Amino acid sequence: MICHDDYPTHVVALNVVEILVALALGVMIVGQFGPWAVMVYVAVGLVALTLSLAFGCTRCYYYGRVCGTALGKLTALIFEKRGKEEFGKSRSQTVAWTLTGVTLALPTAAGLLALSQGPTFSSLLVLTAFLGLVAAIVVTHSKLVCSHCREAREKRCTLGGLGSLRN
Ligand code: SF4
């Protein structure tokens, strides 16, 4: 397993573009319920990102480095470093990653609810595009990021550990 200390630019670019497109599709899906729903979705996403940087990335090997999403570099500009040995073990990190999972799940729930209230071609299309992209992110992230990640190799990241096993 070859680990990257700093990820190649093309991997970071692909990851960032995928995540931004997924967030944009997410806004389109929850937007079917009005601007307040978009505000809630964006607020949950921003809180999840901030907590992940503050409690996850500060404890990560990639703090101050270019990880698969480049967030390690961003984190070092904002937050102080924390103990690397705590990575994947602290409750604050579990809360942050759970909220990140909720941010990913919200558009799926909203999309299914919109379909149950009267399916339209556009609501079906945007939900299918979102789910297809999430599936693509799972594959590319595990192949291009987790399989080269030091946290995965040192078994400190459960998700990463799964992703690296597959390769
Ligand atoms: S690899 Fe994950 S936890 Fe580590 S700095 Fe990058 S985004 Fe944060």
List the helices and strands and how they pair.
Elements: H1 9-30, H2 35-56, H3 71-78, H4 91-116, H5 121-145, H6 150-153, H7 158-166
Helix pairs in contact: 1-2, 1-4, 1-5, 2-4, 4-5, 5-7
The structure holds iron/sulfur cluster (SF4).
Write the element-wise H/E pattern from the N-terminal end onward: HHHHHHH
Find the count of extended strands (DSSP E, 2+ residues): 0
- Return the average pLDDT rounded to an integer: 90
Q: What structural category characterises the helix and strand content?
A: mainly alpha
Number of helices: 7
Radius of gyration over alpha carbons?
Answer: 17 Å
Straight-line distance between termini = 9 Å
* Unreliable segments of 5+ consecutive residues: none
Helicity level: 55-70%
* Proportion of residues in β-strands: under 5%
Which descriptor suits the 3D outline? globular
- Total individual domains: 1
Largest sheet descriptor:
none
List bound small molecules. iron/sulfur cluster
Question: Can you summarize this structure?
Answer:
By secondary structure, the chain is mainly α. The protein has helices spanning 9-30, 35-56, 71-78, 91-116, 121-145, 150-153, 158-166.
